[in-house]
TrEMBL record:
Taxonomy of the source species: Bacteria, Pseudomonadati, Pseudomonadota, Alphaproteobacteria, Rhodobacterales
InterPro entries: DUF3299
Entry protein name: DUF3299 domain-containing protein
Amino acid sequence: MGMNHIHRRCVLVGLCGMSITPHFLYADEDYIDLDWTDLVPEGQVIIPQEIQGLIEHKQSTPRGQQPPSTGVRSEWNGQTVRLPGFIVPIDYSGTGVTAFILVPFVGACVHVPPPPANQLVFVTTETPYETAGLYEPVNVTGMFGTASTTTQLAQIAYAISADRIEPFEA
C-alpha cells in the first residue's frame, strides 16, 4: 500500500506541475484553433442571428432578452486556444481595452439581443489592446475555460485569459 500511495502522489504532483506551466513557454503555433460551433455541445444547433431575431419577434418575451444556453463544452479547459470574433469593450486602461466580450457576429450584445451564453467569451488581458473601435474583428489566443460571468449586457459561459490579441486574419 505504501508504494501505491507514493506512486499516485508522484503522478498527481506531475499533473499539477503541467497545469501551471507558464504561457510564455508555449511555441507561437502551439494552440488549438476553435470556431464558434465548437463551443456548442454536440447535437445542439446554433440559430443564425437573422433567424433568431425573427423567432424572438414572434415570441412574447422582450426582444432584448438573451436566449437560454444549451450547455457548455469543457474539452479545452486549461488549454491554449485561438478564437476569432468581434470586440465589445467592457474595461479600459488608458486607451487600451483590458476586458471585453468576444462575440461571433457584429451587433451582438449592443444592437441586437445577445446570443446564448455559450456563444460569448469574456476576455481579459494584462497588456491593454489598442482597439480600432467597437466590433473590431480579432483573433484572441490564450488560456481557455468555462466560467459563468454576468455583465450588464449578457450572461457569458466561457473565458479566455489572453496572451495575444491580433487583428483578424483567416
